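In response to a reviewer's request, we include the raw inputs and outputs for one of the modeled complexes. The two entities were modeled together in a single run.
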Amino acid sequence: MAVKVSLKVNGKAVSAEVEERTLLVTVIRENLRLTGTHVGCDTAQCGACTVSMNGKAVKSCSILAMQAEGADVMTIEGVAKPDGTLHAMQAAFKEHHGLQCGFCTPGMVMNAIDFAKSHPNPTEAEIREALEGNLCRCTGYHNIVKAIGAGAKAMAAGK
Amino acid sequence: MGAPLIGARIERKEDYRFLTGAGQYTDDVELPRQSHAVFVRSPHAHAVVKKINSAKARKSPGFIAIYTGEDFAAAKLGGLPCGWLITDVKGQPMKEPPHPCLAQGKVRYVGDQVAIVIAETSEQARDAAGLVEVDYEVLPAVVDGSKARAKGAPQLHEIAPENTCYVWAIGDKAVTDAAFAKAAHVTKLEFINNRLVPNAMEPRVAIGAYSRADDNYTLYVANQNPHVERLLMTAFVMGLPEHKVRVVSGDVGGGFGSKIYLYAEDVAVTWAAKQVNRPVKWTSDRSEAFLTDAHGRDHHTAAELAMDKDGKFLAMRVKTTANVGAYLSTFASCVPTILYATLLAGQYKTPVIHCEVTAVFTNTTPVDAYRGAGRPEATYVVERLVETAAREMKIDPAEMRRRNFITEFPYQTPVALQYDIGNYNATMDAAVKLADVSGFASRKKASEAKGKLRGLGYAAYIEACGIAPSAVAGSLGARAGLFEAGEVRVHPTGSVTVFTGSHSHGQGHETTFAQVVADRLGMPIENVDIVHGDTSKILFGMGTYGSRSIAVGGTAIVKALDKVIAKGKKIAAHLMEAAESDIEFANGAYTVKGTDKKKMFGEVAFAAYVPHNYPHDKLEPGLNENAFYDPSNFTFPAGTYVCEVEVDPETGTVKIEKFTAVDDFGKIINPMIVEGQVHGGLTQGIGQALTEGAQYDASGQLTTGSFMDYCIPRATDVPFYQVDTRETPCTHNPLGVKGCGEAGAIGAPAALMNAITDALGVKDMPMPATPQNVWNALKNKKAA
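The model returned the following structure tokens for the whole complex.
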């Protein structure tokens, strides 16, 4: 049976007719055609589908679209400034070569931004711990950890 | 002129789109009237398919079509080909059983394709596929490569008795045996090189489309070499002319080898698109990826190293059984032979080597090239042997290596390869220093004081990259050339679009190649765009694998640039009324020797496209050149890795305290990108040694079929790496480059296992060194 869900995505009110079983990530990718949010596994391990929901990083493959009714969702497409300037965390990933194939990157950035809000000056151990739910097969995490450390500091400095 | 571009840490051109969600991966492609496919797969490792009943599926909402092996046979679709012919010890060709796209009466591994079901949405396709009833007669299975040839083992293919694909050998056995007979010391090891699941973060995707209007097919696919995909699919499977098929592989979310191959799903969606007259999209989920992406490694090996009393290597003898899985994947046959046994000399002057490889079929996912492909297996053999030999002979492991390093080049190994250049002492010295080996003893004491065990291990690896000289590859059985193509299109105002047959799936070619082009043409990097991954745009391409992109693909671009510059000289000579032999090109300007006359590259390009004053009698208008480059030799990146671990004997947990890598990749274009490649490779190598390993139960079920059961490294599993480079430029390509994509995965497992066995004080233990395996190794040691 089709149900209607209404939510805010990247500041815009949207609604979609979906099945009860439809996942939030499906609405984002297929209904809204925001394809920056990726699906890398089916067991909620990889974190490529991470988005911000009501200010918290969540895995959109593990949330039914209906659970997002009325929510305020931000995807990777909504992170940069309206003029296209990168967010401080995105800029840090670029500067520190924190991405290679780019597939895990949107989820990494969404999680990192949420993490940095509560960790303005994180230690290496804190960053690695925070990446438990985000898998990367390309970078060996080395430059991701550096990028998140630098990005968190830049965010704290209001950049 | 600005700062030099070669050797500069330039931020990547491709990053903006990846960081803003604007990448276009294959699953992001949505075509009008697109339908969705789901495959019915075998739940059994070995079974006869007795009956397929699709009646219920056909009534399912949104159902469009179902096709089975019968339909594919009726359409005369061929099986999936293998691209490399190995000739066995008796001079006979390897056994090549049919590899049908959809099962022809039998299934041979869990995940084997039985039917393709197409519906309006992916959920409906999944629902319909779930309603397909397949009647199987389950047969006994064999999953362990070492048991595949045993008497009474279940047989997979009629044409391959004893499940044997081939028995192949390299080197002189009699001379090797004679050298062993005279040895002062022989070190022996037996081990398994564990089976790995590549797990690129982007699962495979294929979208087939067909146009009745012009009888053209398009396949959008996450693939590392679109032209090879097209060649194999058209010429060997579908019997289509290539000009009617376009293969597009845009942004690809990692490959590591697993996206080199032509897979059944690629053929099925392409063929089905014509049948249903709609685009057909298939997106693998992670569970399917575990079952059907070609796996890597899976060797059983017995190896011996013979030495004189001073630890000088006299001979090496190796016997390997390689499990190739249920069918031969695209390059499966060359991985445990040509890419493995030829590397057994390592960095050493071992005068004689003999290696025998038996490739066997089992009821498991096909095995093919995975990052390193044969070379990690070879390095593991050599470097575990050398380290163990040093311990047995009580010689410092670094000193043992130094005594045996090849120091004069070119060097002909006893296993076919000729190394052009290297400096193994330089990378060893640098690694020993960077790893602070001299401080290890005191760190070990400090660990012991805490009740912990500390160990240090080396690996001095070599790899053959820049694959490959076509003549050499051909003589060894390759059924394709291994050159690369590049095209430089200069636009009228002097900016440049470069089309390359190399394919980037994370390596950063859009930046590295642009640095090369901008450097040669003396222009800002912003004036250069690199295009790859579309057979309708690119001249030709053999694609990206075997760390070949910069050495082969980059050289093809350089050759095309040379032609552009040469043609520009002719134009400039005309424009400046000078002899062509007096024209020089540097820093983006053509000048006349001994004068102040000058034309910028952009002016020459403009003249080529607005040929009002142009030497039409001597030259065609336009400035667009291409080149095909076939390397004259492999390249030989090499280096030394030093790993230091601390083991908790109570829990068996291994912590990597330090990991140091010093590599010689020849000339480096972008050190930032190269370091990233090393970090990633090291982590995959550490994954093999510490956390990863595909496991099948006796019935052939993959018991490690998700990220919950198969552990690719998390951020907490690895340290910050210490990486550095030393440089001996490759002697046979103009950039002096060697390639860097696989080194980390090649050298890391041996370094890590050498460190762990050092910490535990055991001769050997199996990979992965999970806490359970480490704890068991300690328990067995105590019991002994």
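As requested, we also summarize the result in words. The longest strand of chain B covers residues 313-325. Residues 299-468+633-783 of chain B form a domain with the Aldehyde Oxidoreductase; domain 4 fold (CATH 3.30.365.10).
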